[in-house]
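This section describes the prediction task in plain terms. A model, or a person checking by hand, is given the sequence of a single protein chain and must write out its three-dimensional structure as a string of tokens. No templates, partner chains or ligands are provided. The sample shown here is typical of the held-out split.
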Amino acid sequence: MAVTKKTLTRKIVHAGGWQVAKRAAKMLPFGGTLVAVGLVGHDIKKKGVVRGVINSGLDAIPVVGFAKNAVELVTGDFIADKHDRKNNGAK
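The expected answer:
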């Protein structure tokens, strides 16, 4: 049986696919609310307490969360992660 190694491209596609899947799941009207509530801890870890709660709160509101995530699929996050905020000041 041949063992295949994941190439860098496949790893990037796999990680990117997970991000798209999370955003798409958040865009569902009420299922998205459940996903957003389930990901509160992850958002807090990435963005900090206040920004993480605000981000998750916006995602949990059905119509607002759909619109926010639809725009974020194209433009990127509205609320920056902790490490992004630190790096922006160093430029």
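For orientation: The chain is about 75% helix and 0% strand.
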